[in-house]
Amino acid sequence: MNENTYKSYSNFGISDKVINFGNEILDTLKERFNNIDDIAEYNQLKVINAMQECKVSEACLLGTTGYGYNDFGRDTLESVYAKVFHTEDALVRPQITCGTHALALALLSNLRPGDELLSPAGKPYDTLEEVIGIRPSKGSLKEYGISYRQVDLLDDGGFDYDSIRNAVNEKTKLVTIQRSKGYQTRPTFSVDSIGELITFIKKIKPDVICMVDNCYGEFVEMIEPSDVGADMVVGSLIKNPGGGLAPIGGYIAGKKECVENAAYRLTSPGLGKEVGASLGVTASFYQGLFLAPTVTANALKGAIFAANIYEKLGFPVIPNATEERHDIIQAVTFGKPEGVIAFCKGIQAAASVDSHVSPEPWAMPGYDSQVIMAAGAFVSGSSIELSADGPIKPPYAVYFQGGLTWPHAKLGILKSLQSLIDCGFIKIW
Ligand SMILES: *Cc1c(COP(=O)(O)O)cnc(C)c1O
User: Fold this and answer.
1) Per-residue DSSP letters for 346-384?
2) 108-140, pLDDT tens digit by residue?
3) What's the 373 CA to ligand 1 centre distance in angstroms?
4) Residue 125 beta carbon below 6 angstroms from any ligand 1 atom
5) Ligand 1 centre and the CA of 100: distance in Å?
6) Rounded to whole angstroms, how far apart are CA atoms 339 and 324?
């Protein structure tokens, strides 16, 4: 490492031992980083190709106001998303406020009273519990007479195919599969394994709609769930596909009918995709998507670096140091609240925005325990930017993700380790 860079890390309060430890770990990761770059290269070409085929022009980058009729840039962007995900259509809008909203929209618009929703891969993401009505909430699927069934994963993290076969019934209309682990310590599913699950379910009931919560998974592999049979893929633009530049938004890409249903629910019956001014965000949606493959690669490198650092120090990490990656999340289990809190404080201290504030656990809407979040982000709450969060409940695991650039991700992880050492949680040096 360059001497000046070394000194800069020291100026950030990182000890020689931590810097050297980080560099030793890094030396072992060259081949893996090369593989990540290969995937990013492929996905970069995929995005550029989609933009060229859709004839993205300078005029597309302008926004509309008011009703947003004939918003050429918005409509073209939706075609670009459909091309990237190899789907018939897509809805990509700033009016979709976040990932939960995108998922709720996809569910509430494609299910009708009397239908049943099936989750064949265990408990969905925390905020979806209220969308579904597992925890009571106003406007939940349950309030609309839509029932829910869940098949938990087997102990080894695999799909319980026998129970799934038994759970599919005449009411089953939509199947929701969450690609990323979310706030759980189960493995994230590969796109191939999601494909196997979808094939199995479609054999039992061909007309069932298979939706994948694609949050944090976009561009991690060369294929997406929509390449292996998913009827809808759904995600947030302040995660991977927004490339750090999208200031808001969500997407639903999929079968024409599914996307249309979602559009009519987002705006109004009769209006659908025709309205929804894009205001001034269109250019950032395009440029963010353009950057997304390499930004995702940077975040992945950070996740792998973190896994190798913390596994070496004896903490359980999911995925482990050598496993293949299917999303950008890295879970590290500390077993005690103090570890989660010190880790998050270290990440916050590495931020370029709000580095001087200290995150504290709080009762965040949609979650059933206190949550601590480190997010010194340019876009508030953006978790494609360097961030970490963890619910303050056993097993006291922290979920680390993001880093728009690899050097920033590296700084964050070194700061997290220094923070754990400084507060006495890690006592090796
Ligand atoms: C982040 C996330 C969501 C919810 O997205 P928000 O933008 O936080 O509402 C849903 N599912 C998964 C797997 C996620 O990671």
Assistant:
1) HHHHT-SSSTTS----B--TT-SS-EEEEE--SSTT-SS
2) 999 999 999 999 999 999 899 999 999 999 999
3) 14
4) yes
5) 6
6) 26
